[in-house]
Write a structure and sequence with these properties.
Helices cover 43% and strands 10% of the residues. It folds into 4 domains: 7-85 and 252-343, HUPs (Rossmann fold); 89-249, Glutamyl-tRNA Synthetase, domain 3; 357-406, no CATH class; 432-521, Arc Repressor Mutant, subunit A (Orthogonal Bundle). It has helices at 20-35, 56-67, 90-102, 113-122, 144-152, 201-211, 227-237, 266-269, 290-293, 297-305, 321-327, 342-355, 362-371, 379-397, 413-421, 432-437, 442-454, 463-477, 482-490, 498-521; strands at 7-10, 39-42, 73-74, 106-109, 158-161, 168-173, 177-182, 190-193, 198-199, 216-220, 245-249, 252-253, 278-279, 286-287, 338-339. The strands form 6 sheets. The chain has a 4-stranded antiparallel β-sheet with strand order 4-5-8-9. The longest helix has 24 residues, at 498-521. It has 522 residues and is an alpha/beta fold. The chain contains 20 helices and 15 strands. The protein binds one RNA strand of 75 nucleotides through strand 7, strand 8, helix 6, strand 15 and helix 12.
RNA sequence: GGCGCUUUCGUCUAGCGGCUAGGACACAUGCCUCUCACGCAUGGAACACGGGUUCGAUUCCCGUAGGCGCUACCA
C-alpha cells in the first residue's frame, strides 16, 4: 500500500475567486506531494454548468503562481491523465455510470425536482433511501416497460446510488483516525443527471481520483460526512484495493462570531479572503486580495500553513516553503477549526518585509507617492523626489536598527513619511506633543535658532556643519530646542533625528517651516 | 431535528500518565531616547464540566455542555 507513488490533487470548482481556505488546502497538498517526491494535480470540477463563472479558472492559476505553489500536472500544466477539466470527461463518466447500472449498484429515477420538493414538504426529514425509494418513481419501483417508455419519450432522469442499509462504513482518516457511520443514514445520492449529461461531484470525484491514480485525498472537513459514501462508491466499482487514503482538514473560522470563514466575510471584517483582487464579472463588485493589499506571498503562505498545522517542539514559526516541505506532517494537523486571526498575518508580513532590501519596496512606495500627488511635479523636482525616496528608505530601513519602523505594509510608510514631502498644514495645539513642547518662550527660542541656522548656506546645510553649531548654541543658552523644532518641521512627535531631518529638507524648506510655525503658534 | 467531527491562555498552538502546563500573536509595564517607533527585558493570561480507569490524570474511556460541519439533480 505504501509502495504507491504519492499523487494528490487540488480540485476547485470554478465558481468564483479562490477562497483563502482553499489556498490552505492546496498548500497542504503541495507540501505533502513535495515531501514524498510525488505529484500535485490541478483538476477543475465544473460539473455544475449553472454555477460556472468565467475567469475563475485563470484567476486560480494566477493565484497559485503568485503564491509559489507549483503543480505537476493538470489544467494548463499538461500530463498523462487528462483531460483535467471534468466537463471534458463526459464520455468517461457515462461508461462508469453504465457499469453501476448494470451491476445493480445504481438505478434510474424520474422524480422531478418539483416532486421531490413536494415530498419533502409532505414528509418531515424525507430522505431518498432504502426506506422510501419504492414509493418513488424509479427503475426499482416501476415496471421495466414503463422505464423504457419514459426514457424513449425523452423524460429527464437521474441515476441514483443504491445504498444498502444497516452497515457500518469505516473511513480511516489520517488526521482523525477511524470514523464510522451507519449506511442507513446515507441517502441514495444522485450520481448523474441526464439533463446535462454530467455526473455530480461524488461520482466524478471517485472516477477521476481512481483514473488519475490519486493516492491521498487531502481536503476540508466539510467533506467528512460524505467520505463514507465515497468509500462505498470505491467498493461498488471494485476499486477498494487502490482507494486513496483520506485526510480531512479542520476548517478556517471567522475571527469573531460564529461559523466558518466564508467568501462574503472578507472585506466586511477588514481583511481579504481572497489571494488576489477579484472583480465580479456580473456585478462589477470588487473584492480585495492579499496581493493588492501589500502582502508578500511568503507571508501569506507561512501564516496560512500554521493555521491547522504546527511543526511542534517549539520550532521557529518563520518558515520558507522549502522548510515546510521538510517539516510537514499530516498527523501533526489539528482536528478542530482555527479562527482566522489576520492580525498575526500582518505580523508575518512585517517580518518578511523587514527581511527584504529596501530597494524591493521602491515600486510600491513610488505608487503611493503618485497617489498622493508627489510625482506630478516638474522634471526638475523629479530628481529631488527621487532623492527623497532614497532618504525615506534609508530612514525607514537604515542599517541602524533603531530606525526601523513598525510597518506591516509598504503603504504604512506614507503616514510615517508624509512630512518629508509635505509641510505641516497646521500646527495643532490639541496635539499633546505640540502643547507639551511649545511654551511661552518657544517662539523666541525658535527665532534664535533660525538665526543660528541662517549662518549656513544651502550647500553647508548638512548634519556635519549644523550639529556643532546648534549644539554650541544650545549649550551656551541652556536651550533644549529639539522637540519644538520637531513641531516646526513635522507638526507632531514623529520622525528621525532632527539634524538629519533638517539636512534632508534643506535650508530653504527648514527655515520656511520654522517661520510658519512661529507665526501660527506665536 | 438527525448524523458526524471537535474542546489547553483573548487568538494560533506545544504537550502524546508524573512538567512551576512551554512558545508565538495581541495586550500591559520598564529600559533606551531630542519625538514616534524599532529593539531588548519583564508581566498578566488556559487544560469546558461530571463520572470512571490508575498509586497518579491536561493526557486514556464514558457521559453532559459548548463549538463546527453535513443533511440539494452545489461543490
Amino acid at each position: 500500500m505504501s509502495e504507491r507513488r504519492v499523487r494528490v490533487r487540488f480540485a476547485p470548482s470554478p465558481t468564483g475567486p479562490l477562497h483563502i481556505g482553499g489556498v490552505r488546502t492546496a498548500l497542504y497538498n503541495y507540501l505533502f506531494a513535495r515531501q514524498h517526491g510525488g505529484d500535485l494535480i490541478f483538476r477543475i470540477e465544473d460539473t455544475d454548468s449553472s454555477r460556472f463563472v468565467p475567469g475563475a479558472e485563470d484567476y486560480i492559476i494566477e493565484a497559485f503562481q503568485w503564491l509559489g505553489i507549483k503543480f505537476d500536472e493538470g489544467v494548463s500544466f499538461g500530463g498523462q491523465h487528462g483531460p483535467y477539466r471534468q466537463s471534458e470527461r463526459r464520455d468517461i463518466y457515462r461508461k462508469y455510470v453504465r457499469q453501476l447500472l448494470d451491476n445493480g449498484k445504481a438505478y434510474i429515477a424520474f422524480d422531478t425536482p418539483e416532486e421531490l420538493d413536494a415530498k419533502r414538504k409532505e414528509v418531515e426529514n424525507f430522505q431518498y433511501d432504502a426506506q422510501t425509494r419504492m414509493q418513488m418513481r424509479n427503475s426499482l419501483s416501476l415496471p421495466k416497460e414503463e422505464v423504457e417508455r419514459l426514457i424513449a419519450e425523452g423524460e429527464q432522469y437521474v441515476v441514483r446510488f443504491k445504498i444498502e442499509p444497516g452497515r457500518d462504513v469505516h473511513v480511516d482518516d489520517l488526521i482523525r483516525g477511524d470514523v464510522s457511520i451507519n449506511s442507513s443514514v446515507l441517502d441514495d445520492k444522485v450520481l448523474f443527471k441526464s439533463a446535462d449529461g454530467l455526473p455530480t461531484y461524488h461520482l466524478a470525484n471517485i472516477v477521476d481520483d481512481h483514473l488519475m491514480e490519486v493516492s491521498h485525498v487531502i481536503r476540508g472537513e466539510e467533506w467528512l460526512p460524505s467520505a463514507p459514501l465515497h468509500v462505498l462508491l470505491y467498493e461498488a466499482f471494485g476499486w477498494q484495493d487502490t482507494m486513496p487514503r483520506f485526510a480531512h482538514l479542520p476548517l478556517l473560522l471567522k475571527p469573531v462570531g460564529n461559523g466558518k470563514l466564508s467568501k462574503r466575510d472578507g472585506d466586511k471584517l477588514g481583511f481579504p479572503v481572497f489571494p488576489l483582487e477579484w472583480k465580479d464579472p456580473q456585478t462589477g463588485a470588487i473584492s480585495s486580495g492579499y496581493r493588492e493589499q501589500g502582502y508578500l506571498p511568503e507571508a501569506v503562505v507561512n501564516f496560512l500553513a500554521l493555521l491547522g498545522w504546527n511543526p511542534g517542539e517549539g520550532h521557529e514559526e518563520m518558515m520558507s516553503l522549502d522548510e515546510m516541505v521538510g517539516l510537514f506532517d499530516l498527523s501533526k494537523c489539528s482536528k478542530s477549526g482555527a479562527r482566522f486571526d489576520y492580525v498575526k498575518g500582518m505580523w508575518f508580513n512585517h517580518q518578511y518585509l523587514m527581511q527584504q532590501p529596501a530597494e524591493a519596496w521602491t515600486p510600491a512606495f513610488d505608487k503611493i507617492l503618485r497617489e498622493n500627488g508627489i510625482e506630478s511635479t516638474p522634471e526638475r523636482e523629479a530628481q529631488v523626489v527621487e532623492m527623497m525616496k532614497m532618504k525615506v528608505i534609508e530612514y525607514v530601513d537604515g542599517e541602524n536598527n533603531k530606525k526601523k519602523r513598525n510597518i506591516s505594509f509598504v503603504s504604512d510608510l506614507w503616514p510615517l513619511c508624509r512630512f518629508f514631502f509635505v509641510a505641516p498644514e497646521r500646527y495643532d495645539k490639541e496635539d499633546g506633543f505640540v502643547s507639551k513642547n511649545w511654551k511661552e518662550t518657544t517662539a523666541q527660542e525658535m527665532d534664535q535658532l533660525v538665526g543660528v541656522l541662517s549662518a549656513l548656506d544651502e550647500k553647508e546645510f548638512t548634519v556635519e556643519e549644523m550639529k556643532p553649531l546648534v549644539d554650541a548654541w544650545a549649550e551656551a543658552t541652556g536651550a533644549r530646542p529639539w522637540n519644538a523644532w520637531r513641531v516646526c518641521l513635522v507638526g507632531t512627535g514623529q520622525g528621525p533625528d532632527m539634524y538629519e531631518l533638517a539636512a534632508f529638507l534643506g535650508r530653504q524648506e527648514t527655515i520656511k517651516r520654522m517661520e510658519n510655525a512661529i507665526a501660527a503658534l506665536g
